[in-house]
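Re: that chain you flagged

S.,

Sorry for the slow reply, it's been a week of failed gels. I finally had a moment to sit down with the sequence you sent. For the record, here it is as I used it:
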Amino acid sequence: MRLTLNTEECLVDFVEMHGEHSGENMANLVWDSLERLGIAPRVVSFVMDNATNNDTLVEHFAVKCQARGVLFSEENGRMRCLPLVIHLAALEVRSCEFLAYSF
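Prediction finished late last night. Pasting the structure tokens below so you have them in one place:
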């Protein structure tokens, strides 16, 4: 038996956030949007920047999934945005004084 997965990448909602930009608040907004659209059980992971509140978002999202019997891996549920990681690494290299005088 062969399993074929069709992956999708799209903006599913854009909501105004009131209150603190905590991971818990963001997880509640994300969950509500995904539930309203009927796609919460289909989410495999999120691609996010390195902000720590995104770690907390994934933790709270995983708790919501577990409470509702939805499969979601907290460990694998967050992917770092590779272009951002490369950009941050390039900025770090560029800021090194040693390298600045080597070229």
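What I noticed first: The chain has one domain: 23-102.

Talk soon,
D.
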